[in-house]
Amino acid sequence: MTQGALLVAGTSSDAGKSVLAAGICRWLARQGVRVAPFKAQNMSNNSAVTIEGGEIGRAQAMQARAAGLEPSVRFNPVLLKPGSDRSSQVVLLGKPAGTLRDYRERDFADVVLSTLDDLRQDFDVVICEGAGSPAEVNLRDRDIANLGLARAANLPVLVVGDIDRGGVLAHLFGTLAVLDPADQDMIQAFVINKFRGDPTLLEPGLDWLTTTTKRPVLGVLPWREELWLDTEDSLSYGADGVVGRPRPPHGEQWLRVAVVRLPRISNATDVEALACEPGVAVRFVTEPAALADADVVVLPGTKSTVDDLRWLRERGLADAITRLDKPVLGICGGYQMLGRHIVDDVESRHGEVDGLGLLDVDFDFTPDKTLNRPTGTALGHPVAGYEIHHGRVTRHAHEGLIELPDGSPEGVVTERVMATHWHGLLDNDEFRRNFLRWAAERAGRDRFTAAPEVNVAAVRGAQLDVLSDLVVDHLDILALEKLITSGPSGLPRLIVH
Fold this sequence. Notes:
The protein is an alpha/beta fold.
C-alpha cells in the first residue's frame, strides 16, 4: 500500500469510530503496513500513560496496540478531561495545559496539524478518528477534530453510523445534508455498525442512501457481543450496568463485584480485567441498595475526588460502604476517598476534607500531575501499571500493597481493604488471581475458585483481531484501500431545500 490517510467520523458519540479505526489499524498492521492512529481532540476521563510519560485517551492507546505500537502523545495531541459539567482540564501533547476556558481562547490547530504531518512522514498510513459528530455545526468554526481537520489536511472522510440506536439512514443522510458544500466534498463513504438480523432486509435502504447521496456504503458490520473491552466511556456498558458477559464459575460459587459509578469516573476500564474471569460478575452501581448483595466493592478512579466523595455521602453510598463488612478495592481517586483526610487546593479547591476513614492515610493534592508507568512486586508477583493523579500520600500507617524497585511501598493492604494509585494493576494475571482469592475469603465465598487460564493481554489482543476480521469480512477492503491512498475525490453535493 502506498502512503495515505483516512478520517473515521461518526454520526454521534459511541457510533463506532474508535473500534472501526482500531479495526482498520489492525487490518493494515497485519498486512505489514506501517500504520499509526490519530485523534486530534478527545474528551474522556479514560486515559493512558505514554512512552514519553504523557497522557492520551485510552481509545488511542488501544488503537496503538492494534497497530503494534506503544502509545505516544503524538496519537492524541489534545485531550479534554471533564472535572464537572462546566469545566475540563486540557492535556496538550500529554501534559496539563489549563482548563477548557483557556482552550477556547487558544488556537491548537497548529499543534494538531504539525503533529499529524509528522506522523504522516513517519508512517505509511495514519488512521484518524473524529470526535463526536461532524454535523455539530454550532462547533464548526473552531473544529480541529472533524471536517476542520479533514479540509486542512486533505483527508477523505468515512462516516460510521450505529444502526442499533435506530434511524441510521436518517443519521447518515442528515450528517451530510447539514454540512456546507466544501465540507460535503470531504465525505466519501459510509459504514453501518452494530447490525443484527438479516442483512438483505437492509439492502433497499442502502441502495436509497447510495442513490440519494452518490456515496457508497462500504459495508455493514454485525453486532458482536464479545467486543466490550477498552470502552471509552463507562456508560457504554449495558443498561443494567453489567460489564462484559459473565461466564459460569470455575469453582462452585460466584463472586459479585459492585463498582461505584462515580459521576466523574475515570479509567473505568480497570475493572474489565475482573469481568474476564469466569464466575466474577461485575456491575456498576449508583444506589446503596445495590451493595447489599455484593461480595466486593470497588471505588474506582475519578477526575474530581472531593466532589465525587461528596456525591457518595449525598447518595448514602459512603455510609453503606463503611458499614458493609465486605472487602473493598480502592483505585486512584477511590484510594484517596478511603483515607482520613484530603487536602485539595488543585482539582476541587475545597481545601481539607474528611475521607471515609477506612484507611489511616492522608493525601495532599499538588499542581504537578504524576504520570508514570511503574513496576514493582505485589502479592508475591511482578506487576506493572500506570499512574495519573495529583494526589500524593503525606502520611501512611499501613502495610504497603506494592513494593517498588527501590524498596519503598505503594498503596495499602489491610484485613479488609486493598488500595493503590496504580491503574491497570488488575491486568496483571497473577496479581488479579491472588486478589480474587483474598476477596473471596473475606467475603465468605470459600468455594469460589480463581480460574488459572485467563490472560487479559491475550483477551485484549484477540478482540483486536476480531475487529480486523470484521473489516476484512464485511467491508469492501479494495474500495477502502483506494479511499485511504487516493484522498478525497469530487462527489456530487447534496442540496436540501
